[in-house]
Amino acid sequence: MTSHHLGLAWVWAYSLLSPLAHIGAFAFLAPLAWILPRRISSPWNFILGFVLSVIACELVSALLPYIDAWMLSHGDLEFNLSKLVGLYISFVGPTMILVGGLVASRAHSDELREASEVEAQIAKNRLLQSQIHPHVLFNALNGLAELVYKNPKAAERAIRHLSDLLRRIMRASEHMRLPLGEERKIISDFLALEAIRLEGRLRVVWDWDEGLDAIEVPPLLLQPLVENAIKHGISPSIPGGDLVLRARAEDGVILLEVWNSGEPYHEHQSPSGIGVKNLCLRLALHFGSGATFSVGPSDHGTLASIRLEAMQVE
């Protein structure tokens, strides 16, 4: 009978329209009344959400039968519109209120979980970065202790460089990520401090693509590697050695490398220092499997390399 009055196309259109209207009411309109007042403090957000939900859901449930009534009326089918509306208000409306509350509660729980995960990640990152401060300070003070008796004037200059270095490190530790150019400035301050202690035994070469300076990375990635290269490679070597710092893009990823020609690297050695452990943890925290760290012999020296596979560059 319905096909005779409306045609088959209208029957199919209605067959899709009616379920979509009901699903949309339950899935989108019902939770909306609960979600809108969530920024208000408790318990007023629940009270207001409940009131809005009752009004909205009962209103929508009273309008939904008219979609069915339009089709039934064109199909010459007998029905009682008032009873149909009453049925929807009595059963569909309360069900929408309940479903909307459950959906909104689930969405809010997911938001809280994601927010707590982000806060936990930030807290862990700050804890790891805070460990670098005393580590750098202790190592620098040990180096300054040698200068106090040997060269008091050089020790005075070194203290000023140390002050600048710590100030820059403290500023860097306040951020999750910083431009790579800031890392270069931190390393420059650190090398200025070490150059006073090692004098001509430390020879620094920069092989640095300045076009990468704007790319943001976690702070203090290379500084621990530079510190280890000087401490374990160049400082123990009587003639000193060369220190080469590289930053370049290769095959769509970023390579950060520290090479030194000081004391040779031995296979039985393992990068177990505080700075290297901290570095590996922070790389895993920020990039997961998208970053790798390696250290070993290379070209009659020692090469420490960070490969940031997650940092896609042109």
Q: Can you tell me about this structure?
A:
With 314 residues, this protein is of the alpha+beta class. The protein folds into 2 domains: 2-114, no CATH class; 151-308, Histidine kinase-like ATPase, C-terminal domain (Heat Shock Protein 90, 2-Layer Sandwich). The protein contains 8 helices and 7 strands. The strands form 2 sheets. It has a 5-stranded mixed β-sheet with strand order 2-4-5-7-6, with helices on one face. A two-stranded antiparallel sheet has the order 1-3. It is elongated. The protein starts with a helix and ends in a 6-residue tail after the last strand. The model is unreliable at 1-6 (pLDDT under 50).
**Widest sheet: strand ordering:** 2-4-5-7-6
Helix content: 55-70%
**What is the CATH superfamily classification of the largest domain?**
Histidine kinase-like ATPase, C-terminal domain
Mean pLDDT, as a whole number? 77
Provide a count of the helices: 8
CATH fold annotation of the largest domain: Heat Shock Protein 90
Main pleated sheet: 5 strands, mixed
Number of self-contained structural domains: 2
Q: First CA to last CA: what distance?
A: 65 Å
Radius of gyration: 33 Å
Q: Which stretches of 5+ consecutive residues score pLDDT under 50?
A: 1-6
Sketch the topology as an H/E string, one letter per element.
HHHHHEHEEHEEHEE
Strand fraction band?
A: 5-15%
Question: Structural class from helices and strands?
Answer: alpha+beta
Number of DSSP-assigned strands: 7
Regarding CATH, which class of the largest domain?
A: Alpha Beta
| Mass-distribution shape | elongated
Proper CATH architecture of the largest domain: 2-Layer Sandwich
